[in-house]
Write a structure and sequence with these properties.
6 helices, globular, alpha/beta, single chain, 5-stranded parallel sheet
Length: about 140
């Protein structure tokens, strides 16, 4: 399983959840850090997250011998962006999303109004990318 954490998280703060996933499912869980978070130097950007998310899955296939259909991808909150991006590019075994969003602009519009959303460049357009996902999808979201 490849896990992409939420915005206010990093690998350290999500380690107990990753450990829980491993304990409950028996799967090996590979959690990816985002550039500019925690010990990963640089500045966070959608492009760097997308680039790294593709590389990590390709690493599992090319260097570790996994088949795409054996890889489960999970994303929480902002992590739903790279999770959907990966699943739109590779037919993975399944895609699980916890508290996903349609797009960054729509998220800002819902919270702060349309004017604020007009000032942003779209970073993760989950709503348009999800149409390209051919894997089974599980969405977990509260009110």
């Amino acid at each position: 399983m490849v896990f992409f954490h939420g915005n206010a998280e990093d690998l350290e703060s999500s380690s107990s959840f990753v450990s829980y996933l491993h304990t409950k499912t028996g799967y090996t869980v590979l959690a990816m850090e985002f550039e500019g978070y925690s010990i990963y130097a640089g500045h966070p950007s959608a492009e760097s997250v997308q680039r790294d998310s593709l590389r990590i899955v390709q690493h599992l296939v090319v260097n570790k011998g996994f088949d795409y259909h054996d890889i489960l991808v999970m994303g929480r909150s902002i992590g739903s962006g790279p999770a959907i991006f990966v699943a739109a590019h590779f037919k993975v075994g399944a895609l699980a999303l916890i508290s996903p969003f349609l797009s960054i602009c729509k998220l800002v519009e819902d919270k702060y109004g349309w004017l604020c959303s007009m000032l942003l460049e779209e970073r993760f357009s989950n709503e348009s990318l999800i149409a390209h996902v051919q894997s089974p999808i599980l969405i977990i979201h509260g009110l």
